[in-house]
Task: structure prediction
Amino acid sequence: MTRSVPWLLLFALTAPAFADDTPPPRTIAVSGEGRVSVSPDLAIVSFGVDTTAPAAGAAVADNAKKSNALVDAIKAKIGAKDKVSTTQYSLSPVYEQRDRASAAPPKITGYIASNQVRVELHDVKMVGTMIDAATAAGANRADDLQFTLEERAEAQSTALAKAGADAKRQAEAMAAALGVELGRVLSASSSGGPIVYPKAFARGGMVAMAEAAPPPIEAGDVDVTVSLQVTYEIK
Result:
């Protein structure tokens, strides 16, 4: 005996076939890029204090004295929005140089205490003055200097607008070359490229310069880049 299939079930089984027959839209995909160069509004510089002594306690005490003097000198120069913080501290033994053929265990001859202080300056023109003050206060190591943006939303928005204009220009040029008409935007996604921080000096170079005179440091511009991937429909 043959059973009949309900017409609702039959419709459900056959309806997707009509959707599968719909051809996908024709598209043009492009990638636009926008770049903005702006003046940095934040400078970050790190100073170090290294002290050595035959005993660990003496190295620690000497380092604490010099580090406190360094922090006091920095605080006397920074503004209300600026920050100073200790980012690294270590105490390491110093071993006697021995002949490689010797089987005796290495002998500790002293200790070295290291302290790193990080400074955030909103007046980037103060970097040279800060380096001079830090070295005069006892800093014997400069680990890093970078210029960056604390407020970057406006620059990123401008770069994104440029990326959108670049993507549209490319799509229109491609459509004209192919003899088709550009339609609506089907999808869009963005990704921020690397922000280039202009570095003034390599590690340790700032201290060497500051021993002679306050170093003239030019911040330069910070580059903000944004990539925008857009897919347009072809009419």
Remarks:
- The two ends are 54 Å apart (CA to CA).
